[in-house]
Amino acid sequence: MNRRSFLKSLSAGVGCLVSTGCVTVMGRSAGKRPDVLFIAIDDMNDWTTLFDPRNPIKTPNLVCLARRGMFSNTTAKPQNDPGSLKKMVQSYQASADFADQMVGRLLDKLDATGQAASTIIVLRADHGYHLGDKESCVKFTLWEKANHIPFIIVAPGVTKAGSRCDRPVSLIDIYPTLVDLAGLPPKQDVDGKSLVPLLTDPTKKWQPVLMTMGKGNHAVRSDRWRYILYKDGSQELYDHAKDPWEWNNLASQPEYAEVIDEHKKWLPTNEK
User: Which of 70, 153, 157, 236 could lock onto 137 through a cystine, CB 3.0 to 4.6 A?
Assistant: First the structure.
């Protein structure tokens, strides 16, 4: 079995193992103390050697791949080549579909054990890859497609089924939100803010959010705009009402100077 086939079968096996283990624990603890079901794999090289540490299988470093030009490499190959952009997108979507199925298993078990009505669910993801848009196949950017993630909160008695909120928020808001939902006293020394007001009223006005990629490189996302300022002073501004794929950089056009100034107010003033 080659490395690609091994990793594919192993990742599927680990996914089934993790979801099966969670389902088992949920069934065993129904009606008892709450469980925290959390599993993290720190480094792919660790779990690819899980079955035989004497024969390690090294996986490619994605940063190095990006620097060598992942987009150029994948687009240079024939469409049906295993390393082509087409196959990369197909594999990426297949992995997302598989994760969706595993989440479904957990939710089905939650319903079956009668715990759904008393359980807060937070579903979120790591930031994802560009899949060829903007001639990019990496996740290390400040553009929308690498920063926008699936994020779902179900809070019995607070959220309404089928509701949707389009306000930009940050993952640092998860902790204060859970503290709020649990009725615990808020902590003053955290940067995030509770999203409960948005859970009860998804149309409520909200402040822009900040994203950072290395020192001095920041993006500010408001309801309509994404503003990016890089360490070298270069800027990007995109109007998501007209340009959701961020093809047209408006930062150099004088009529948008006021929009840029408004978004600059949310940039950090002190970076250590």
Answer: 70
- Residue pair 71/137 in contact by the 8 Å Cβ criterion: yes
Q: Are 68 and 79 in contact (CB under 8 A)?
A: no
User: Distance between CA atoms of 134 and 145, rounded to whole angstroms?
Assistant: 10
Residue 102 contacts residue 20 (beta carbons within 8 Å) = no
Under DSSP, is residue 27 helix (H, G, I), strand (E, B) or coil?
helix
> Rounded to the nearest 5 degrees, what angle is found at the Cα of 144, between the Cα atoms of 211 and 216?
30
Inside any domain, residue 172: no
Residue 217: what pLDDT?
Answer: 94
Tokens standing for 247? 């093809």
* Strand-pair partners of 124: 151
Distance separating alpha carbons of residues 22 and 108, to the nearest angstrom = 12
Within a domain: 201: no
Cα distance between residue 138 and residue 92, in whole Å: 12
Task: Flag whether 266 is in a domain.
Answer: no
Enclosing domain of residue 50: 1-107
Residue bearing tokens 């020394």: 189
Question: Tens digits of per-residue pLDDT, 50-105?
Answer: 334 444 434 334 444 444 467 787 788 888 887 888 888 888 888 888 888 889 99
Residue 75 falls within a domain, yes or no?
Answer: yes
CA distance 76 to 59: 21
CB atoms within 10 A of CB 113: 16
In 31-117, which ranges are continuous DSSP H helix? 44-48, 62-68, 70-75, 85-112
